[in-house]
Amino acid sequence: MVRAALGSLRDATFVEAGSGLRAIEVLGMEPVQMVVLDLNMPDMHGLDVIRFLRSHDRYRDLPVVVLTTRGDESSRQAAIDAGASQYLTKPFAPSALLSSVRELLDARVSRRR
Amino acid sequence: MSTSGQDRPFADGFMDDYFAEADEHMVAVRRSLMTLESALGSTLPPAALEDLFRSFHSLKGISAMVELREAELLAHHMESCLRAARQGSLTLTSTNFEVLVDGVRMLEHVIAARRASTPPPSIDAMAETLEALGRTGNEVRTETPTANNTRTNEPASRSGGARWWRVTFVPSPQLVERGVKVDTVRARLMQLGAVQNVVPKVVPGGGISFEFDVATNDEAQLAQWHDDGLSYEPLDGPAPAAPAGAEPADAAVVERPLTDLTLAGSSNVVRVDLARLDDLMRLVGEMVVTRSRLEDTLQRIEAHVPFQEWRALQDHNGRLERNLRDLREGVMRVRLVPVGEIFRRMPFVVRDLARDNGKRVHLELTGQSTEIDKFLVERMMDPVLHIVRNAISHGIEPPERRIAAGKPADGTIRLAASTAGEAVILEITDDGGGIDIPSVAQRARSFGLVVPDDGGLDSRALLDIICASGFSTRDQADRASGRGVGMAVVRDTVEGLGGTLAVESRPGRGTTFRMTLPLTLAITDAIIAHVGDQIFAVPQTAVREVVEVDASLLSAFERNELMPYRGGTLPMVRLSHVFAMPAAHRARHHAIVVGSGQAALGLIVDRIAGQREVVVKTITDPLIRVDGVSAATELGDGRVVLILDVAALSRTRRQHSRVITGVSA
To answer: What ipTM did this prediction achieve?
Structure first.
């Protein structure tokens, strides 16, 4: 579904990871430019994944969009504190996800210029 | 918070994706449930609990995205139940387990209702029950994630005195290709012993590694995984190492493979709308026709073109033919899906029916990875279901009768798929009592069918009776096996798809139904025959043999002609007669023998013109539909050829004759 929502991103390749550990494994092998992350994952919590990314230079600036079912202010704050770039609460509109991702990708491109 | 109304059309565009993804998750759910059920009462495999939890979690998320609230709610409550079960605050007794199974069934109904655009069933009661079950574990649930990747030095009490190791896993694309990923490594290590921490590390110079702290005595196993990117070293600390020989007694249990791993989930998969593949196949078909036109033209101009030039053209044509054949095979392969799609519903069906019927049934699946055209898979689902239902309600005996007959109390139903050349064979075997022939014969007589007095029925005659419309040995229809229309529909479906159905009954030992189906339908090899100035094609899968017919040996019986054939008689049909064409009177004809058993039939034609690859174009326009013709194709010279519907031809003939004689081959 997430992938379907992002389907209209041209030239994008998607790699799926079913757990936090698997996500990190993929990051080590693929040139990933953007992460869409569910907080509630097996093996390793999404927040821990973000903390891991933010504590290493290589991944410090990697945009991370966080998806979660919890909308309360504290977990939102926890995600932002950990270093999430964007935060979406389920159920979210597919179009909202798409525009968040577009925004972050655009920001990344313009920063590089 | 809620999705705005204007997003509706946007979300609607995702419904197909939603259904496809929901289906995948439901498959995983069923798989996990089966695994858990077999472990009820003992230690539940953590991996299955974990998988189930994740499936519900994902279903909840995607259902929320498409605003399917009922599905979201059910999945949410079941997720809570699984969370509680994982944390140990909820024990999955068989009663609790049944609640989950019912919840899953309700969830299926909700999704199915959305798919059919019908109102969802009422889920209130079920949601309440599930919620109550899930609450059991809620008080221990922590919302704030614990930073579990900071190392604690406390030894896990469940390590049971095993030695601690620091295991390092360095993933690589090569390993991923072999299916060795951090998730699978973690699962392996969890089978081996307690896993305390998993810490990802950034490797200087690039890449990632993972460190696991594992308590196990099985150092030998760790060493064996060296080629899978695992290295290990002992960890200092609390390791009053147990004697190496003292393997934990439950090791054998833990290492038992999960039942159904062969039905691996799909990850590297592109979903394509079947209509697009149909289009592609149609285009390939048109190219096949164009190329055979090219070939005809080449033959014609041979005399008018310098040999060298002609030769070059012919070479190109030959290459084009090979390329086209490869292309056709490639497209066909894309349409193939594992037969497992039919099988994977079965464990649920068998489980429910066995319970309803007070029987104990064990299901064995083999050959799930056998591939078959997607189109066929969808149409074979109901026939296979029907036969499996029959096997449980009629075939498998109640436990006490089985024991009395010296058989194991648990009946076995075996579903097997295999390929044989261009055909796929599906076999459904039970080890029940076999078909009750005297009662079948009696029932057949009461129906007005003629049965030999000794009640001796060969397997083909038997199939004809049980496939006769309205036939049932049960006086009352039960939920499982319908009202006697079932087997007739099964046979019509199989034959309509160009396949054959056979039955073999072993009294006291069980029954086997065998369906032989063509691998694909769009392009097929066919026998080309002439009748008068018409040309017909008969799909080769339906053809048993081609024989020469001596007109003087034909005898008339009722409305048919019969011909001596392999020690019996074979009903013959003149195609010129069927299609009201002027009959050619000649002493010798050819006949194409199609079908088997009571459905066997000889089609009399004037001349056999050979065998060739034809592109099947189904005739759907009701104005030009003719009984006995299923489709049309085009030959290289542009002539249109009708493809005979062998199943319909033999059905028409069967309706004219109610005599059960059986052709003994």
So the answer is: 0.81
- Domain at A2-103: CATH code: 3.40.50.2300
Q: What is the pLDDT of residue B413?
A: 92
Phi, psi angle pair for B574, to nearest 5° = -85, 120
Q: Does residue B145 contact residue B98 with C-beta atoms inside 8 Å? A: no
Are both B458 and B576 inside the same structural domain? no
User: Is B213 domain-assigned?
Assistant: yes
B114-146: burial string, b at 16+ Cβ within 10 Å, e else: beeeeebeebeebbeebbebbebbeeeeeeebe
Instruction: For residues B237 and B148, give the distance between their C-alpha atoms in angstroms, rounded to a whole number.
Output: 19
**Residue B428 has what pLDDT?**
93
- The predicted model gives B199-222 an average pLDDT of 82
What is the pLDDT, as a whole number, of residue B242?
Answer: 37
User: Least CA distance to B203: which residue of chain A?
Assistant: A28
Structure confidence by residue, pLDDT tens digits, B240-270: 333 333 333 333 333 333 333 333 344 466 7
- Are both B648 and B577 inside the same structural domain? yes
Q: Residue B10 is nearest to which of A45, A75, A93, comparing CB atoms?
A: A93
Tell me, yes or no, whether B528 lies in a domain: yes
- What average pLDDT does this structure show over B80-84? 87
> Cβ contact (<8 Å) for A69 and B67?
no
Mutate to test the interface with B, among A2, A14, A16, A24 (most CBs of B within 10 A): A24
> Nearest-CA neighbor of A87 among A102, A71, A98, A103?
A71
Q: For the stretch A46-62, what's the b/e string if a residue is b when 16 or more beta carbons lie within 10 angstroms of its beta carbon? A: bbbbbbbbbeeeebeeb
Q: How high is the pLDDT of residue B240?
A: 38
pLDDT in tens, B94-119: 888 888 888 998 898 899 888 888 88
The verdict on residue B611 lying in a domain is yes
Task: Dig out the tokens for B178 from the structure.
Answer: 């072999």
Mean per-residue pLDDT of chain A: 79
What φ, ψ does residue B451 adopt, rounded to 5°?
-125, 140
How are the residues of chain A apportioned to helix, strand and coil, as percentages rounded to the nearest 5? 50, 10, 40
In chain A, the largest separation of any two C-alpha atoms, in whole Å, equals 38
Question: Helices B437-446 and B459-466 sit at what angle, rounded to 10 degrees?
Answer: 50
